[in-house]
Specification:
Layout (H helix, E strand, L loop, with lengths): L1 H15 L6 E5 L3 E6 L2 H22 L12 E5 L3 H8 L7 E3 L6 E4 L13 H17 L7 H12 L2 E2 L5 E3 L7 H5 L6 H5 L8 H20 L6 H10 L5 H4 L6 H12 L7 E3 L10 E4 L2 H15 L6 H14 L4 H13 L3 H14 L4 H17 L5 H17 L4 H12 L7 H13 L4 H13 L3 H13 L5 H19 L18
Parallel strand pairs: 2-3, 3-5
Antiparallel strand pairs: 1-2, 1-9, 4-5, 6-7, 7-8
Helix pairs in contact: 1-3, 4-5, 5-8, 12-13, 12-14, 13-14, 14-15, 14-16, 15-16, 16-17, 16-18, 17-18, 18-19, 19-20, 20-21, 21-22
């Protein structure tokens, strides 16, 4: 009932918004940003986000990736923190990020740069979450224990621009000052061991705060140079447990004392990326069409995730708006998604066809068309070759529109795997390419690992799964990955390999 109440509240708030909302979209090399804001405000926020990404790359000598639209992060500025909480389904959320193949998305309140230094504001939240995205896409094969993952994200969350446009890294997370300075409910041994298991609220705050302190101190303290890299290499390359890998730090008691002294310092070390090194390509902006603006709040709700309880309400609202804009491709594409989520696959197919008729180059519409076709065929237990040839033709059209979009590649693989068929080599190659394009997608990583097990590439599968077991946000997928690793280790020890192809992943990648 809580989810339903939050959805009702969110939809009611949307209905109360003025019909003439000036929704705009800004596109940069790494972001697609939507906001009900002035052109100047949206441009400022989009440029600063792009410069933040540029600073991450400049500071580490990382080359620019070749990203298409599907590789960029979509950011929604959705109004107040209450709206963010309603989308997240929980009260204590200032913003959140969902990693998906071809559709990674973040949700934050409107005023990105208006929060005070003592508040956990939307700027810090978005930079924290983008740091996770950057880490997952830049070092996809590295296993980061939760304190490293959260500490690294917190280190970058506090980055701030000065009046000259320089970007300063290394600031303290003042919003965690109380937890950092009033005792530590999470001993350093537990932090370095991965802080596994369910944590209390104060322990989780300590994980973030102490994680930041450890990452900062180990990065800048001359006496600790190289220790963090040695710790991570021991986990990823040498397959040591975090407890064993912590030997890279020597006496943990001594490290804990040093950390305490570090936290008492009046000033801490950081570094600055000068404005002249943060040149970015021009940002493009446009005002959304009336239909796009009308459907966008429901698209935001769909992108945040719905379930069997909340999907029907979103679908009902989407149908009302779609009747007003029958020829708008964005509206019909959003309706296709809402219908699919609600289980009305025939309506999803019809809406996808209308979207394609209005804009034949809309990849997402072709993907939803294929998904609806697959769902209808599965419901009818239709295994006729001509049916699945037609489905793959739809997928092929989507792929030809953008060969660097991972979603058609995933769907092509699924068109075999979900029928309990071992996919042909071209489909398996396509799934591997999809993973290369979107390693941040946890469900996709699980699916690829299952495929690798089926190909008897156990070491590769294990390495891919190991990353999930350390991911602090992987939840049930992390537990499933641990079980798969146990099975792989048992098979490796026995010198055996699976006799048949694996079942499809229990958590298939969602196209939206």
């Amino acid at each position: 009932m809580r989810c339903l109440a939050l959805l009702a509240l969110f939809l009611a708030v949307l209905a109360a918004r003025p019909a003439h909302a000036d929704w705009r979209v800004a596109e940069t090399a790494h972001f697609i940003v939507y906001a009900n804001a002035s052109e100047a405000a949206l441009r400022r926020n989009a440029e600063r986000l792009e410069k933040f990404d540029k600073a991450l790359r400049v500071s580490r000598g990382i080359l620019e990736p070749s990203l298409g639209k599907a590789g960029r992060l979509t950011v929604y500025f959705v109004g107040s923190k209450h709206r963010v909480a309603a989308l997240a389904g929980t009260a204590n959320v200032a913003g959140f990020y969902i990693p998906r193949a071809g559709a990674s998305v973040a949700f934050v309140p409107d005023d990105l740069f208006g929060d005070g230094p003592l508040a956990l504001g939307s700027q810090q939240v978005l930079q924290h979450e983008y740091a996770h995205h950057f880490m997952a896409t830049t070092w996809p094969n590295a296993a980061f224990p939760s304190w490293v993952s959260e500490g690294w994200a917190e280190f970058h969350a506090t980055a701030s621009f000065d009046r000259e446009g320089n970007l300063q890294f290394g600031g303290a997370p003042l919003y965690r000052a109380h937890g950092l300075l009033t005792g530590n409910p999470l001993p350093i041994q537990q932090i370095l061991a991965g802080a596994a298991g369910k944590l209390r609220a104060d322990q989780r705050d300590a994980l973030y705060g102490r994680g930041w302190a450890l990452v900062h101190y180990l990065t800048f303290a001359p006496s600790r140079k190289g220790q963090l890299s040695a710790y991570l290499d021991a986990i990823t390359k040498e397959r040591k447990s975090p407890e064993a890998a912590a030997a890279a730090f020597g006496d943990l008691g001594a490290l804990n004392k040093e950390l305490g002294r570090f936290l008492q310092q009046p000033k801490i070390t950081g570094f600055r990326i000068r404005a002249e090194n943060l040149a970015i390509p021009p940002v493009t902006l446009r005002l959304l069409r009336p239909g796009e603006a009308a459907i966008l709040p429901l698209r935001i709700r769909s992108d945040a995730g719905v379930d069997e309880k909340t999907a029907p309400g979103v679908y009902a609202e989407a149908k009302k708006i779609a009747t007003r804009f029958p020829d708008d491709p964005a509206v019909q594409r959003a309706l296709a998604e809402a219908a699919y989520d609600a289980g009305d696959y025939a309506a999803a197919l019809a809406a996808a066809d209308r979207a394609i008729a209005a804009d034949p180059k809309l990849v997402e519409a072709h993907c939803y068309r294929a998904m609806a076709q697959m769902a209808l065929a599965a419901a009818a237990k239709d295994d006729k070759p001509e049916t699945w040839t037609a489905i793959r033709q739809t997928i092929g059209r989507a792929n030809r529109l953008n060969t660097e979009d991972p979603r058609p590649l995933i769907l092509f693989y699924r068109s075999y795997a979900e029928r309990r068929q071992w996919p042909p080599q071209i489909a398996r190659d396509g799934l591997m390419h999809a993973y290369a394009l979107a390693p941040q997608d946890r469900g996709l990583r699980m699916q690829v690992a299952g495929m690798l097990v089926g190909e008897k590439k156990l070491a590769e599968a294990r390495a891919m799964l190991l990353v999930l077991t350390y991911d602090p946000h992987a939840s049930g997928i992390g537990a499933a990955a641990s079980k798969m690793i146990d099975t792989i280790d048992a098979q490796t020890k026995a010198g055996a390999a699976p006799a048949s192809a694996p079942s499809p992943s229990p958590t298939p990648t969602r196209t939206n």
